[in-house]
From TrEMBL:
Protein name: Phosphoribosylamine--glycine ligase
Source organism, top-level taxon: Bacteria
Keyword Ligase recorded: yes
Family per similarity comment: Belongs to the GARS family.
Catalysis performed (reactions): 5-phospho-beta-D-ribosylamine + glycine + ATP = N(1)-(5-phospho-beta-D-ribosyl)glycinamide + ADP + phosphate + H(+)
């Protein structure tokens, strides 16, 4: 198979590494890719949200399967364009991708399908939103309605924090169009986990689960980010519980999407809160998570490409997903200044030394080559340093040993990824 993988982040590097192992693969193209994916296939200078450019590339290279990595091309309609061009695509239509593209749409689907989720209200102007939080009190969650690259959610512990989030998004426009409308919802309490499944029509096949660490600082402090690390599988959320969560939170959504005439095909990523009264939905995403994908895929034993090809054809009965009975930890190394303005251009050395360590994989995200052909930081979340182990403790030790080997003075990272999971194990 000739495959086009769309994206340029750490998730896509991890996906490319898994796809490259497939005996079905004849050629792999990544658009636009990064220096890490360049080792695994051919990078192509087409933006991930340039749908006409991606279709032209797919036609030019005789692509047999398009695999979207991030949400942007899906919300922009890449699956619809692929269908029109007669090219199989392992992702949902633009209408179905509204599950991620609009928080309001997701809440309406949940209400119609009877899916447990936090009580919510939508606001299109700052004044009524501010009045609501002053009446409601805190804590509350303020969410930009549109796509905001993982930065559109503020868990406000005080009314002042909620007011600031509303002002930032709706008055100051810090998130652009994404924050012109907001959803404000009750703050759910419990452990947050990420659940992944292949879906087609009303059918869902479990992939697995991971636990992300969203906040920038140790001890879950500071602002939310796109994700600073992950563990897989999550402690206290076994396969039986994951299947039960699919029955409660994913399969009813699929039936409702079919009823609406917008059936979902692709990967669903359900963010869940394990509350005292059972799992509740936080949000849907229509692709693998980042950095959860990195933690999941290094445990994968089955053929990812074969599974994605089956998804594109709607043949979920042929989808085989098997993981090693190991734990994995992913530690994100970000550039100093993230999630604000990151320091870019710093040279990164000794990745190969880290990857030579047992069980270690380093996935690149926001990197590039400078004029001297040195690897440098080119954005906020730059590397995902991952490791597997027979125990969570072993995986965690290996990941942090590898982090310390990498020479990048501008790099910052959390020191407690997986620590809470270890405490929960007892």
């Amino acid at each position: 198979m000739r495959v086009l993988l769309i994206g340029s982040g750490g998730r896509e590097h991890a996906m490319a590494a898994a796809i490259a192992r497939s005996p079905l693969l004849d050629a792999l193209f990544i658009a636009p890719g990064n220096p890490g994916t360049a080792v695994l296939g051919t990078n192509c200078a087409v933006r991930a949200d340039d749908v006409p450019g991606l279709i032209a590339l797919a036609r030019q290279e005789g692509i047999d399967l398009v695999i979207p990595g991030p949400e942007a091309p899906l919300v922009a309609g890449i699956a619809d364009a692929c269908a029109k061009a007669g090219i199989p695509c392992a992702g949902p239509t633009q209408a179905a991708a509204a599950l991620e593209g609009s928080k309001t749409f997701t809440k309406e689907v949940c209400d119609a399908a009877g899916i447990p989720t936090a009580r919510w209200e939508r606001f299109d102007a700052a004044g009524p939103a501010l009045d609501y939080v002053r009446r409601h009190g805190a804590p509350v969650v303020v969410k930009a309605d549109g796509l905001a690259a993982g930065k559109g959610v503020v868990v406000a512990q005080t009314v002042a924090e909620a007011e600031q989030a509303i002002t930032d998004m709706m008055t100051d426009g810090t998130l652009g169009q994404a924050g012109q409308s907001v959803v404000i919802e009750d703050c759910l309490m419990g452990d947050e986990v990420s659940l992944f499944a292949f879906c087609a029509g009303e059918t869902a096949v479990l992939i697995g689960a991971a636990q992300d660490h969203k906040r920038i600082g140790d001890g879950d402090t500071g602002p939310n980010t796109g994700g600073m690390g992950a563990v897989s599988p999550p402690t206290g959320f076994d396969r039986e519980q994951q299947e039960a969560a699919l029955d409660l939170l994913v399969r009813p959504m699929l039936r409702e999407m079919v009823r609406r005439g917008t059936p979902f095909t692709g990967i669903i990523f359900a963010g869940l809160m394990l509350t005292a009264t059972g799992p509740q939905l936080i949000e849907y995403n229509v692709r693998l998570g980042d950095p959860e994908a990195q933690a999941l895929l290094i445990r994968l034993e089955s053929d990812l490409l074969a599974a994605l090809a089956a998804v594109a054809k709607g043949q979920l009965d042929q989808t085989d997903i098997r993981f090693a009975n190991q734990s994995s930890v992913s530690v994100v190394m970000a550039a100093r200044g993230y999630p604000g303005t990151p320091v870019t251009g710093g040279v990164i050395r000794d990745i190969a030394t880290a990857e030579a360590m047992p069980g270690v994989h380093v996935f690149q995200a926001r990197t590039k080559r400078n004029a001297a052909d040195e690897l440098v930081a080119a954005g906020g979340r730059v590397l995902a340093v991952c490791a597997t182990g027979d125990t969570l403790q072993q995986a965690r030790d290996r990941a942090y040993d590898a982090v310390r080997v990498i020479d990048w003075p501008d790099g910052i990272y959390r020191h407690d990824i997986g620590q809470r999971a270890l405490l929960a194990e007892g």
